Amino acid sequence: MKYKIALMKGDGIGPEQADATLIVLSKLKEVLGLDFELIDVEAGDECFKRRGKALPNDTIEVLKSSHTCLKGPVGETAAEVIVKLRQMFDLYANVRPAKSLPNVPALRPDVNLVIVRENTEGLYKGYEYEFDGAAVALRIITRRGCERIARYAFELARRRRRKVVAVHKANVMRLTCGLFAKTCRELSKNYPDISYSEMYVDAAAMNLIRKPQEFDVIVTTNMFGDILSDEAAQVVGGLGLAPAGNIGERFAIFEPVHGCAPDIAGKGIANPTSLILSAAMMFNWLGERYSDEKCLQASRMLEKAVEETLKEGKTLTPDLGGEASTMEFGRKVAEFLERFSESG
Ligand code: IPM
Ligand code: MN
């Protein structure tokens, strides 16, 4: 099968990360004979400056006719790009793994958790109003939204350590968080093989620092998931390493958790790992969706090549204490892919 993959390089460090990732992807194509075509699409601040639109129609059209999308970070216009796309394509699950990696300075060496963040409702609906010197935001929580994100989390936990923690603040937001908690609790009865518990979001923020190794799958609402996923990324070594998938029934967009880091953009020093690991998540999704063993293998190889690069520790970007450039890191990952294929 030939896959059509939209590539949105984004703003800031996005294009540099994408160029390093492209080296890796073309090596993957070569060693696995994986068949895919990358189609450049524009969106974000630069696109807005040039074309007056942060998310042009031609980009949306290409996405509609692609199997998936690999996306770099976007700057100030991010809400008009990724938040819109999540809603437009109903990408309801934002899946954000935080996993300890070799040689990466982190709080603990043995963390392996995933945050499953509801991605289409909550405070991100964008219903804000102003009147009489007050500003109001509506937090939309639906039973359907809670059900499908909870189901996603339980199904994911079945393929992991079988633990789900639902994170909320139902002691204060009795109706919205209340509905979320109640729905998760009800659904947990269909999963007797999964250990289920609940945690208030403030306690979860603390426990992510105190004992992050105890978490397996965290399921939560949109804004809480946004905040906790930055925290979890830092617990295992920083945002430069953190990938994410925005996943729906028919389409998915994979992107780093971080923003476009304008302070280091254009210097060639950004860590491309977050985007390379996002590509690994992408191939895993393609492999599962189209029952394609080759894609699943691509995903595993990408992850392993990143791990070996970090383990070797000679080609690290400055965020990890090294002096390598973004491109050098990418070339090193590609080199490991080559080595794996030679050793069969
Ligand atoms: C993220 C980002 C986005 C979000 C921003 C850029 C709109 O922080 O993907 O976590 O808040 O969801
Ligand atoms: Mn965020």
Anisotropy-based shape = globular
- Spatial gap, N to C terminus: 23 Å
Q: Average pLDDT value?
A: 97
- What is the β-strand count? 12
Q: In terms of per-residue confidence, which ranges show pLDDT below 50 for 5 or more consecutive residues?
A: none
The helix/strand series, from N terminus to C terminus, equals EHEHHEHEEEEHEHEHEHEEHHH
Strand order of the largest sheet: 2-1-3-12-11-4-5-10-8-9
List the helices and strands and how they pair.
Layout: E1 3-8, H1 14-32, E2 36-41, H2 45-51, H3 57-64, E3 68-71, H4 78-88, E4 93-99, E5 112-118, E6 128-131, E7 134-137, H5 143-158, E8 163-168, H6 176-188, E9 195-200, H7 201-210, E10 217-220, H8 222-235, E11 243-247, E12 252-256, H9 273-289, H10 293-312, H11 326-342
The site of 3-isopropylmalic acid (IPM) has 7 residues, from helix 4.
